Amino acid sequence: MENEIRNHLNNPTELEALYRNNKVRFKRSFDVLYTEFKGNAIADCWKERLHYESPELNWGSRSELLYVVVASLIAGLVAKLPAIFNINEDYFYPRNIGFIVFPMLTIFFAWKNKLSVAKIAFIAVTTLIGLIFINSLPNVKQSDTLILSCIHLGLFLWSILGIAFVGEQTNDKQQRLAFLKYNGDLVVMTTLILIAGGIMSAITVNLFGLIGLEIADTYFQYVGVFGISAAPMVGTYLVQTNPQLVGKVSPVIAKIFSPLVLVMLVVYLIAIVYAGKNPYNDREFLLIFNALLIGVLAIIFFSIVETAKATKNTTAVWILLLLATVTVIVNGVALSAIVFRIAEMGITPNRAAVLGSNVLILINLLLVTTKLFKVLAKKVEIDDVGKTIASYLPIYFIWTIIVTFIFPLIFGFK
């Protein structure tokens, strides 16, 4: 959309049509271009218009509200399928929990972005393949490949959601970064919704308990399940229609947690040496170590997205560089530990998955760290770091396909 805005900047009618066609995407694209047109009267007016914060909550159009209600009900019904059709919950939920939320969100963005028939067909077919494949796998107890496939299927569906989010411009790096920012905002909004819902539920159950009616089980089996299932859809709608709700919270969280996580990681590495913990021989410790790595990686990515958008503060870049460097060290320890375990005890599905993930993350971190160093050396802009992250996202998508669909076949459901 950047090129369309650039071409029609001096044509108010066409510019207004672009805005009304997709307001959220127009705003993101305009913000990217604004530095190029700063000082232009029309561009300055649009800047003020797009960033005007209404004191009232925007509830969007009736059609959007209707979709949110219907999508929330469908998500709740999918979550209740085991109860409706007497399906084994241990079989259903590990395989299908991603289908409770992601398809509804994907359809929402496909509709909002007015995707082409070809792209809608691609999204529908890939989602259907995932649904059929995961539910056709044999119900083998204690199957590592089945667990890995179920976990990575969620990441696969998340990637499909990203394809719908970026719209027709699949290679648009700014749109990919906007997708990462959307995920951060969604986590904040959904958490607030769940906290508020939890408080309301506790009050409701206890109020009925005071008059002798124990509704806890029934309430959580129906109202609770539908509420939890609907929370991501409602959170997405609020984030999209009212970006100001968390637009100022997310940068603050990024600025606060980046230095805190850096200190925590340094202290943790020192504590590992002091405590004598050995990731090379302790399997559980290695798993936690890798979970920590993924969490820190997410914080780095989100912080870089916010830093690139909000500020060019050198201190913030230094913190991100140090955090990325320390995370590379953590990744190196984890990678050497998994290589050691493979050499000593052989390859297994879990070890192969962890090895592949660690290698991909290490390469990504090294690319990001190099870019951050160049930013401080004033060889590149901070935006280039975000572009590096955006360019790497498809590689993670390919990895989710490998683990989800190929690992069960290679390792024979071990």
From TrEMBL:
UniProt keyword Membrane present: yes
Keyword set, alphabetical order: Membrane, Transmembrane, Transmembrane helix
Top-rank lineage group of the source organism: Bacteria
Keyword Ribosomal protein in record: no
Membrane-spanning residues: 65-85, 92-111, 117-134, 146-166, 186-212, 219-240, 252-273, 285-305, 317-340, 352-373, 393-413
Protein known as: DUF4153 domain-containing protein
